[in-house]
Amino acid sequence: MDHNIKRRSLLAASVCALIPFSPASLLAQQDDTVIGKIARIRSAAVAMQNAMPRVLEVGSEVLLGDVISTGSDARLQIDMSDGGELTLGENTIFVVLEYIASQNGGNAVMRLLEGAFLATSGKIMETADATFIIETQTATIGIRGTTVWGGPLNHDLEVVLISGKGVYVETASGRVELNEAGQGTSVISADTAPTAIKNWPKTKVARAVATVSFD
Description:
This protein is mainly beta. It has a domain at 1-96. The chain contains 3 helices and 16 strands. It has helices spanning 3-16, 23-29, 202-210; strands spanning 34-42, 45-49, 52-55, 61-63, 67-70, 75-80, 85-88, 93-102, 105-114, 117-120, 131-135, 140-151, 157-171, 174-178, 183-187, 198-199. The protein has a 16-stranded mixed β-sheet that branches. It is globular.
């Protein structure tokens, strides 16, 4: 394991202790359930579970409860078990807390602790009562049959709807709904409402997508 992977493994391990969920609750989510596989990878990435790091490569399984960490200049694409897709940018830490996909409904809960992501929902969101949320340090992002990007650009967290039905961004102080491709919002802090919806210029959307692009 090279120095960069070791550093990210240690960081992922330390992050486990900072996740604002009770240890018992988090450990209950950790098991051998496969929720996806690595489809593409660039540079270094690891998955941490039960204090044991696994170096990720194409074909590696992603398990429920994994703390996924990417290195400098890294990209990581996960093909989810329900047909969805998740791509992570460099220096990203991402946790899969819950992932249930069935004919009767579905539920996905993930947490972005650092970095940028691009998420496309799969069959989970084809049922009426399904939920798919990505929690961050400052806001909750709710996904509805869509492709959405989230991460830092000009602020710690910005979100833009790439395509699909819509997405909401919510803090303790307010909520906005993005319903058209290109609409975006920023979150300044957990104590303030998301900024008013704006149509992002194509150059800004391109900047966002570039953070998770393999090109």
